[in-house]
Amino acid sequence: MKRFSSFLLASLLSFAAFAQEDVKTMQANAKKFTYSGDYNNAIIILNRALEQDKGNLELIKDLTMNYYLKRDYTKALEQVKQMVNREDADVISYQIAGNVYKALEEVKDCEKMYKKAIKKFPESGPLYSEYGELLYSAKNITDAIALWEKGIQVDPAYSGNYYNAARHYFFTRDKVWSLIYGEIFVNMESLSERGAAMKQLLLDGYKEKLFADADITKGMAKNKNEFSNAFLQTMGKQTSVISRGVTAETLTMVRTRFILDWYQTYAAKFPYKLFDFQQQLLQDGLFDAYNQWLFGAVQDLASYDNWTKTHADAYEKFTNFQKTRIFKMPKGQNYQTN
């Protein structure tokens, strides 16, 4: 009898292990269908996997996302309402929920959900970014930028808040933060489509905002931010170079002199990873190639291609350098205030 009981227990444990492994296999197969755009097959598999493991949050998230991708928002919402009320709901759970609420244009419910999510995860950059996007689309600009700035403060290694904030500041009178946040973002997402678009915004920002007037502090009399005033004063010393126009070449000269002056005057008071990175590039002889990469391609692609050929060694050295580094902003270097 004891032998039979032991055998039965071993069989049950073996079956449970097999079932769990089978659920993992099913989830992996479902993901393959999701990636191929076959959401119906992914849903079929995930629903069967949930029959074996009803409380599996990862399966529920995958199922909800497939309903969302299929644009079956009604069924996605059914899953969302259960998912966000779970004690183990994570940041991704709330992100998926946000996508569903936005698709259904349920703004009030979506805002309520984000508030709950941020209370639970107060240092989640993605949640601040996406909550801000919701408010921005609802024309609540003031609260949206405040959320993006808060996201930069609490989670500076997350890129989305820099992207949203840079785009916002580009359409305001501010001359500083669209350039700074935009360049940070490009370094964080150097290969993405958004990164390429931000390069154009950066070049436009130097042309249309920072150097549009001979006096770059014009219109900034009410600016009380010490960091941005220091930035403008230091940049203002270099305006004679811009008489040749704003190009990748003149921006390299201006920004080189800026970094040299900044480290003599303001670096101790305002330590900043972006400027440390630029100084490193200068010291390594890569700053010219970096500025060509940043501005040259969007200014004139044919000229940039020619530059890479006539400066093949510098281009290769910079390209190899890029492959080996990950750019992240640290905490404690957020000098913007609203």
UniProtKB/TrEMBL annotation:
Keyword DNA repair found: no
UniProt keyword annotations, A-Z:
Signal
Transmembrane segments annotated in the record for this chain: none
InterPro entries assigned to the protein according to its UniProt record, in alphabetical order: Tfc4/TFIIIC-102/Sfc4, TPR-like_helical_dom_sf, TPR_rpt
Signal peptide positions (record): 1-19
Name the SUPFAM superfamilies for this protein. Answer: TPR-like
Q: What is this protein called?
A: Tetratricopeptide repeat protein
